[in-house]
Each structure stands twice: as C-alpha cells, then as structure tokens.
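Hi W.,

Here's what went into the run:
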Amino acid sequence: MTKKTFHLREISYDDWEILLEWRNEKETRNNSINSNIIQEDEHKDFIKKIIKDSEKNQFIFEYNEKPVGTIREDLLGEDQFELSYTINPKYRGMKIGQIMMHLYLIERKGSFFCEVKEKNIPSIKMIEKLGFKLFKKDNQINLYKLDK
Ligand SMILES: CC(C)(COP(=O)(O)OP(=O)(O)OC[C@H]1O[C@@H](n2cnc3c(N)ncnc32)[C@H](O)[C@@H]1OP(=O)(O)O)[C@@H](O)C(=O)NCCC(=O)NCCS
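Here's what came out:
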C-alpha cells in the first residue's frame, strides 16, 4: 500500500493564492458568516495581518504533501479559541476535515468554539464527532464548544 502522510503547518505569505481560491469558492461562501467575495488586495492584507498577529494562527493541512485544508485559530481570551476551517473543494466528502481537526486538537488544551450555520450539516457532523457540543443558538447560527 502507498504511504500516506498528514502534516499540519503554519501558513506562509505564499499560501495567499490557494487560501483565496478556497475562501471565494461557492460552498465556502455559502457557509461563511460573511458570504462576500473577497478581493485579492484585501485578502493579501488579511494574510499579512494573521502572520504578524500573535493572537491569530492559521494552518494548512497537507495530505501526501498537497494542501487539502486550513484552520484558523483566533484567541478570544485566556485558553479560549475560535476556530474556522475549510477543506479544499476537491477533497471534500472524504472526512479529511476530521483528520485535520484531530491533528490540530491532539495536544491542545482549552475551550474551542466554532460558529456554524445550522444548515451546514457536514460541518456539524464533523465537529460533533470531535466532541463539540451545542453551546448557543442565534439567528440560524449555532455556536459549538469543546472543553479539553
Ligand atoms: C465542513 C467541511 C470542513 C467538512 O469536511 P469534509 O472532510 O468534507 O467532511 P465530510 O463531508 O467528508 O464528512 C462530514 C460528515 O458530513 C456528512 N455529510 C456530508 N455531506 C452531507 C450531506 N449533504 N448531508 C448529510 N450529511 C452529509 C458525512 O457523511 C460525514 O458524516 P459521517 O462522518 O457521520 O459519515 C467541508 O465540507 C468544507 O470545507 N465545507 C465548506 C466550508 C465550510 O463549511 N467550512 C466550515 C464553516 S463552519
């Protein structure tokens, strides 16, 4: 059987293009709280800010050395993090999101929050399998929480 590799690494500025492509893809936009198309300049500034900001971290998940997903972590308070994530559209439906999230969470401690539109069934199924529980509901957006 061929060897499989999984790797979670921090983003670098050079990842801006693939991250913009995933961000502007239809399903990602439909499932995002802000569904607007993001312009290249705005996105590049956003990526630069994330790289500089000590309260934000973003990761690329690689499967067999190909970028297949991303997670962003925003520090909300002491040991409290909001997570947002996307899987490369070509790799959706393979449950790769769960592997990415497991790898991210494996040695982390704290409270993790995810805001998910209530109609985003794949995302809800994925985070519930990881142990996230519904914490709050507001205007068709569910807030899920995991304490670990
Ligand atoms: C949400 C997302 C990260 C899930 O990652 P994924 O690796 O593609 O996950 P999958 O779709 O393979 O699996 C997730 C679960 O949803 C289920 N599922 C997928 N599509 C479904 C559908 N249309 N109806 C019902 N269940 C569905 C899968 O069967 C799986 O459940 P199971 O483990 O109980 O079998 C990915 O779909 C994505 O990037 N979506 C667009 C961006 C997005 O929504 N980001 C999150 C914002 S909160």
